[in-house]
Amino acid sequence: xxxxxxxxxxxxxxxxxxxxxxxxxxxxxxxxVGGLGYATNIAVFMLLVGTGAHHIAAAxxxxxxxxxxxxxxxxxxxxxxxxxxxxxxxxxxxxxxxxALAANLLVLTALVGGGTPLVLAQVLAVAAALPVNYAGSRRxxxxxxxxxxxAATRVYAPHPAPExxxxxxxxxxxxERRNLRPMVEALRxxxxxxxxxxxxDDGSPDGTGALADxxxxxxxxxxxxxxxxxxGLGRAYLEGFRYAxxxxxxxxxxxxxxxxxxxxxxxxxxxxxEENGLALGSRYAAGGSAPGLGTARRLVSQGGNVYAxxxxxxxxxxxxxxxxxYRRDVLESIDLDSVRSNGYxxxxxxxxxxxxxxxxxxxxxxxxxxxxxxxxKMSAPIAVEALWKVPALRLSAxxxxxxxxAYRTILLWWAGSRILVLATVLVVQALRWPRRSWYxxxxxxxxxxxxAWDGRWYRMVGERGYLVVPHHQSDTAFFPLxxxxxxxxxxxxxxxxxxxxxxxxxxxxxxxxxLYELTRTWLGDRMGLRAAVYAAIFPTSYVFSMAYPESAxxxxxxxxxxxxxxxxxxxxxxxxxxxxxxxxxxxxxxxxLAVLAARRWRESDERTxxxxxxxxxxxxxxxxxxxxxxxxxxxDPLAFSTAQREWGRRLSVDGIxxxxxxxxxxPGTYNAWLFRDAAFCLVFLLCxxxxxxxxxxxxxxxxxxxxxLLPLWSGSFTSDARFGMVALPVYSGLAxxxxxxxxxxxxxxxxxxxxxxxxxxxxxxxP
Amino acid sequence: MTLRAAIRxxxxxxxxxxxxxxxxxLLPHPSPGERIAVRALDVLQQHRGTRVMIDLGGKRxxxxxxxxxxxxxxxxxxxxxxxxxxxxxxxxLDGERMLAGRTEAGGQLLSAQADLAGSFQLYSKELIGRxxxxxxxxxxxxxxxxxxxxxxxxxRDRPRVELLVSRRKLQPxxxxxxxxxxxxxxxxxGSAPASSGRGC
Lengths: 767, 200
Known about the structure:
heterodimer; A: about 775 residues; mainly alpha; 29 helices; 8 strands; about 60% helix; B: about 200 residues; ten-stranded antiparallel beta sheet; about 40% strand
């Protein structure tokens, strides 16, 4: 009573209600989505401004893309309780977004007019518009109860189901009046006394529903589910399945009402389902046929099956057929409430889900006949749905469970750390700190700092190809992967700099996921996750955002290791070859891959052995391909190392001695930076030792140590802080060091602080 | 392991190497002009200019160049003035010219004299700068004393400095300087191998 009075009093005063845990959680989700949208907004804005677009047009386009992204994420995640039809919700959300856009443009115009740098002005304008967007989204666009109540299904069951109900066959209908009676009669012949037919009618205007009711009355063998409107085949089946399970059926089947499936095949289907859990009437298994399909439909159908089979990795010939029978335990295991497909992909999804739960579908060969009466429901949107739904199924399956949570965590840390790096370099560029005369403006060169140093050389290789300038620094010192990939993106309209930065950052996302996959094979899930997070915020990880190949090397080397660990040698070979085209250190992949292959040699068949050998040699082979190119072009297969000499990198026996001499004799500031590189060298070695203690294979640790130490033989510690970043076990060692909560927190805080400092001094010293 | 598996592995490795070669060959190729520039650079690095005749707005002036320690060069002009070249920097040795060099026109005169003094090392540096910035180098053809020549643009585009080299052997023949205040040219009178220790 007191509580109620307080509430009333609050309402009278117009005070907001107290926040609940759900509110906080909702706000946190909205903030995360907003942060991601913010990053997208800024990135798109900079890209467009960088390619010459007017800042107002760029802001509008950036806002639209970010709003689309925010809408999808908010609908699917933040406000998932307030589900409503997508169109209405979308219209309301974009209405709110437009108001927020107006606020954004007003602030932007005012700030730019006042002389604020463009990107800084856009950052402030987005921040100012955010509260408008949140309030509108929360209160209106995604308001709870906005969705209309689902229309109720009416059940017509004049006779009770058999007491010892065995099989229920669902027959979805829409305008099947002429086929329904013969179908029910045929099923009555094929099924036994303990079986039942459930007609699921979608409000057919031709009176199919009324006929079904009549058959239910007269046969005592039919129950009818009347759905008020046509909501799709998948929804109809789901209602039928739920109804059948509710009746206690041991087997649940489905059959089309148009006689393209022969009801006489039902007993065979039931027998196979009882034995295997799931039986599919198959047109394309041995003994099956489909004379009822015309040439064009057969091509589409078979093409769709080949596509689905390849994408989902299922050994089933006919995934799209609608003649199936499930055992009760199979249907219960596939969680009908979470099935999203509605068209023909419904069949693919249910079979895929069953197969993922270790049920091996049995294919019963059938003859697929021509539709007896009526029109086919196949349409272009259904075919298009299948195109994207199939890979989506595969992806969502891959991202389920522990791994999905780990991927989400990794991607959040990736996004956060990249926003930190990007924001830091933009602030440095906007403030022109430290003072230098050659800072370009953000509007002209938004990626100037991220494409500095070696980025300039990679751009030259991309734009002009390799050119050896005798006895001088030449671009053959740089490997071709980054220029090749950036050129590919440049061809679709991105500037070279934007493409190179985009590749680096996306490469890092892939690299972190691959690093997680590799590390979990050594040390388990938790260590894998921690290693990936530490890699995302490693103090020198700003290089992973620059137009450098380090993130691609990280990704390719980790992928090669993870694929090899799972016995996928062909994929490992491709990844190792990609690494070979990115950096020379990748040649050290030979060591761990060879040890792994040797350990599995005896249990491998000949094909696997051949593939493992190819994977071991892949990185050297790719480098050999590059050397061959240099030899044919410049007559010098070692043009890479020849050019490296002009940078003072010449491997020699006394190199490490010279490196220490340089460290102790270099003057002032240069010396301080050298000490930074030397300190990182020590940190890397310490981490590698910890990795070895934690249980990382010695071959990987040795390869990591060589990556860190070999450059010292060229006579300098210079850039070792960068070279060591691709020594993958370093992050495992760091994860091992951070296994206690306080250590974990300390590492994260120190890494973030050092990363910010390193990104802020990007122009003071090359990485 | 059977021979068949070994062959299969070798085929895989060969395919990867061939694939890598194919991918790298997708990169753009240096233009013919850039290739010529690299060859010309080779010639410049193996020889040194010793004597030149500068035409400075109609006034003809002989100049000599020689190497000094610490990567510096000394340019001595016929009128008695002397310049020190360090990399691409020019410093006059007499105070009056140093003062004159502080004006824009005076600075340009100094830079013209340096560029036309026949220092192959200076030409190398300016050519490398141009190559490394991806700017076009070979900008046309001409004739010097009846010899077919290629015009190589050096340094930045303003002022415009061009080195004329013979089409056949890419030997330097002459140079031109076109600035806002100064228009000048030179003809090379002598050069020596880099190993001779003469010229610069």
